[in-house]
Amino acid sequence: MPDYFDTLETRSPAEREQALLAALPAALARAVKRAPALARQLEGIDLASVTSREALAKIPVTRKHALVDLQPKQPPFGGFSAVDYGEDMPRVFASPGPIYEPQGTQRDYWRFGRALYAAGFRAGELAHNCFSYHFTPAGAMMETAAHAVGCTVFPGGIGQTEQQVRAIADLKPHGYVGTPSFLKIILEKADELGVKLESIHKALVSGEAFPPSVRDWFAERGVAGYQAYGTADVGLIAYETEARDGLVLAEDIIVEIVRPGTNDPVPDGEVGEVVVTTFNPAYPLVRFGTGDLSAILAGPSPCGRTNARIKGWMGRADQTTKIRGMFVHPEQVAEIVKRHPEVIKARLVVTGKVSAEVVTLKLEVSGASAELAERIMASARELTKIRVEVVMGAAGSLVNDGKVIEDARSYE
């Protein structure tokens, strides 16, 4: 008999749609009262009438990259938070951009519990959590989800690979949570050290692409890896199930696929930007454009869950790019240029395969030198949290196509 996180996952599509849309007017009214940015976004709209997707589509999209501009104008959250510092906001996080995100007090605040459950995690198990606990909410996102499932958590975080291997060998966790690239690094380090890691048979991975080649590499080592897709702002958006056929949408959000750069939903099956409306009372987001591309898949999942599915992450609607689990924004590249007067123009190029990327900062400069390259590398590491190679050329050496970030990775 199929096993589900809760009965919401098997509601009829009509029942789910009716429940979400019926709750929408009250959620919008609550957001307008507490979050000034939502009051601006929804100004002039009859909130009581927003009871259909057609009515929702008339509200302008607020895109993720806009938060980088909006937050400094009304710090710290750009007017989007409905709670203030204190007991209603136990933590604040920072994602690259920077973008600051509040954490509210709801149990399983980012709602990743059902994704962990779908990946096979159960109460009474130990989860080895290798998402970062530093600055970004990723570690806390998965820890609160594991607690919702009933798991104990080892907060491994990132780095210190040999110590990760030792902890896994000693504690024998039932599953891994983190980026797929870091799990691959850990397993390879264990092979190098001659240490058998036989307890981990499942993994929930996120934060970067999870191509079939990496999934199969894990399977050959007895690890069933499942992926979850979400953001620091809205939490879980969709998750993989045993059906291995697209990603099932989360239960308590409204997801639209819109034509990039517009407010207009596209027909099912057409690739567009993932736009999410949440019911989060602490951090309400209405028609929030994630900048990610995907498409709705036809029909229900063979696993028995009845919500709609998306194909998964299919690239970026803008030039913002995720590298090794971290978003890199064009604004960050511009800040590197601003810091170094010798730089005329910059282009960040990502090549190679997922989990083995090469990140190169190509520059037009006046007066190239090794010392300048070192300073620029340090700035890039500080601003993006990613190590880059610097290649300098003369004025006019870069392609004149307007690109600041070029994602040329292989996703096979």
UniProtKB/TrEMBL annotation:
Keywords: Ligase
Domain of life the protein comes from: Bacteria
Gene3D superfamilies: 3.30.300.30, N-terminal domain of ligase-like
Molecular function per GO: ligase activity
A Pfam family it matches: AMP-binding
The AMP-dependent synthetase/ligase domain, residue ranges: 139-277
PANTHER family to which the protein is assigned, alphabetical: BLR5969 PROTEIN (PTHR43845:SF1)
Protein name per the record: Phenylacetate--CoA ligase
